Amino acid sequence: xxxxxxxRTSSSRLAASVAAIVIGxxxxxxxxxxxxxxxxxxxxxxxxxxxxxxxxPGEAPVALAPILPLDELPADQAxxxxxxxLAGWVxxxxxxxxxxxxxxxxxxxxxxxxxxxxxxxGAGPVLIGSAVGDHSAPGVADRELxxxxxxxxxxxxxxxxxxxxxxxxxxxxxxxxxxxxISIHAVTTGVPAEERPLRLASPSPDDNRISHGCxxxxxxxxxxxxxxxxxxxxxxxxxxxxxxxxEAIPGFSPxxxx
Length: 258
What we know:
A hairpin with a 4-residue loop joins strand 7 and strand 8. The protein is built from five helices and eleven strands; from the N terminus they run H-E-H-E-E-E-E-E-E-E-H-E-E-H-E-H. Helix content is about 20%, strand content about 20%. The chain is of the alpha/beta class. It has helices at about 10-35, 80-90, 195-200, 220-230, 245-250, and strands at about 70, 100-105, 110-115, 120-125, 130, 160-165, 170-175, 180-185, 210, 215, 235-240. The chain has one domain: L,D-transpeptidase catalytic domain-like. The strands form two sheets. The chain has a nine-stranded mixed sheet with strand order 1-4-3-2-11-6-7-8-10, with helices on both faces. It has a two-stranded parallel sheet with strand order 5-9. The longest helix has 25 residues, at about 10-35.
């Protein structure tokens, strides 16, 4: 089935597509089993003797009550086959370890959040690092924001264990990768010239590369989707700009189970 041919203009249609491909992945997995025996970009970390383990995030900000799937994507914006295929693979193979998980498509500037049960919780636009690339530069987490070279302002690709942890100023941040200070937070307005809210609201993904590497979503998306979903941590899957996806997310190969 060509998933990209189906117009995903609502969360219900996206959820249906995910459910269908999960069934396909589950059948493949079963067959294989039978055959085989700060809110600033790069929020400053708190100096600590031991690094934070995102898998054990501790207390998170007070989570709001879950709501029906929140769809902030433009009605005519397509969703890639890879996103749908990856969601199905994650669920069918329990790669998320029964935790909530998020898929970020950097090229389309889209984010999809799923509950531990695989149900879609929200889909929306996302701001990403201004530089194209799939790795974080060595030592980038220890630099001041203004000192990060433009070419190092990347959002890394891969599979991450995410969770809440301490940040500067007594705050808590939702860390995607502690070692490189990559977090996700509500869109910031500290530099008006960057026009981040306008970029996020734009129907085109072409202007969504603006951050120092962290991910930005709308305040509503953060409060009603991410915050309750990640109260106890979860997984993040960030699709690459350039590297082979099999390298970014080992074990996954697009369409191998479709």
